[in-house]
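Exam revision sheet. Question 4 asks you to relate a sequence to its structure. Input first:
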Amino acid sequence: MRLFIISLFLIGALALVAGAAIVGGYAWLGYQFRAEGPLEEDTTILLERGSSVRAIAARLEAEGFITDQRIFLAQLRIDEELGRARAPMRAGEFAIPARASMAEIYDELAYGEVIQHPVRVPEGLTTAMIVRIVEASDVLTGEIESIPAEGSLLPDTYLVDRGTSRQAVLDRMAAAQTRLLDQLWDSRDPDLPFSTREEAINLASIVEKETGIAHERPMVAAVFVNRLRRGMRLQSDPTIIYGISGGEPLGRGIRRSELDDTTNPYHTYHIDGLPPTPIANPGREAIAAVLNPPESEYLYFVADGTGGHAFARTLAEHNRNVARWRQIERERARSGGR
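Answer key, structure tokens:
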């Protein structure tokens, strides 16, 4: 009987020792998981979609984010067995601060914000110019499989994850323009001199190229709408340039021979109505302006020397504005362009 009691005592003592060892092991593991990490400076890491937990842990150790992937994986396994559920680590680019612990790194990869990068597309660029911006981005990947039609993209600043495909960004720009037209189309002026969305974008592209001043876009749109209503030609210089160079800057003025050229299909001094296609990708304000132009009697405009334009109701008034602009040009030429 005494031997039996002693045996029970020894078993109990061993169990206590084992339990204490396990508890101590858990405590040590938790301490290591939360201890300051080896990363010497703030660093980003890009996790590919579909990466396993083991692959992520191995990479974190290999790239110096953590000291031992076994501790990282063991703590995650223990948390899982104890019912302390953790959100999965996600694909994307993440910012990891210097000396971040394993726990902090896990939380950042599971709950932190994915770093996004801006792809900036100004208003008034041709599709070819936008494609070049997308191709030059070092955060985007892949080849462009389909070049969008001229005027089909909505200029804006688009935030993207590193590794997003170039085609996906162009598709997103096209979808954004479609959504904008869906929002604006039903509330358009019912008396517009055009009937399709394509024509609206075509006219908006001309408005966009005629002025870079936001508050002028509605008035420029009104001039062109008024001219179309009266059967007058648009007479827009940017359309001539598009027919010459596809919208690329000429780096010079339009030549007399180009003004006289009747074979240019975009020459709105010679053709009636709108050109065959848009001449650029218009922004939100230009599209909104042509769909709901303000009431106006203006039929003409010309540069006024301040960066804006002088508007006129009659040809005589317009000719006076043109004469003032020509005088400004001559004075600038004499003073060396100042």
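Marking note for examiners. The chain is about 50% helix and 10% strand.
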